[in-house]
Each structure stands twice: as C-alpha cells, then as structure tokens.
Amino acid sequence: MGWLTWIVLGLVAGIIAKFLMPGRDPGGFIITIVIGILGGVVGGWIGERLGYAGVTGFNLGSIIFAVIGAVLLLFVYRLLRGRA
C-alpha cells in the first residue's frame, strides 16, 4: 500500500474510532490521523494473527481491522494521557 493510501485509510479509521469513542482528546486532527494510521498497523497485525489477510488496501476488511486497531490505540492513549 502506498503512503497516500495509508494516510487516507488512517484518516477514515481515526474518524470512525473517534465517532465510536467520543470525547475530548488533546492533539486534534493530527493525532486522530496518527492514531488511525497506527491503528491500521495494529489492526493488520491482529488480523494476521487471527488468520485473516489484515490490512491489504482500501477495502472494507482493511477498514474494519484498522478501526479495531485505532479504537484500541485510542483507549490506550486515553489511559496514558489520563495518568500523565
């Protein structure tokens, strides 16, 4: 997958994760994209461990795994920021 696809997929995953877990988070738009991109990586890793293809491009399966990863990362981010 190209860098532009990762950024767009990350943006979509980050927005969906933010919609599923609303609240005020520091960092705004940029952190949402970063969490989404990293969520794609985490989601792809989880998908591969479960026997699926993981994140393979801009398709529904990839978005689902990226959103799962982004939600997990957003949860961890909030835990860490809450304790700082």
UniProtKB/TrEMBL annotation:
<dbReference type="Pfam" id="PF04226">
    <property type="entry name" value="Transgly_assoc"/>
</dbReference>
<keyword id="KW-1133">Transmembrane helix</keyword>
<protein>
    <submittedName>
        <fullName>GlsB/YeaQ/YmgE family stress response membrane protein</fullName>
    </submittedName>
</protein>
<keyword id="KW-0812">Transmembrane</keyword>
<comment type="similarity">
    <text>Belongs to the UPF0410 family.</text>
</comment>
<feature type="transmembrane region" description="Helical">
    <location>
        <begin position="58"/>
        <end position="80"/>
    </location>
</feature>
<dbReference type="InterPro" id="IPR007341">
    <property type="entry name" value="Transgly_assoc"/>
</dbReference>
<feature type="transmembrane region" description="Helical">
    <location>
        <begin position="6"/>
        <end position="21"/>
    </location>
</feature>
<keyword id="KW-0472">Membrane</keyword>
<keyword id="KW-1003">Cell membrane</keyword>
<feature type="transmembrane region" description="Helical">
    <location>
        <begin position="28"/>
        <end position="46"/>
    </location>
</feature>
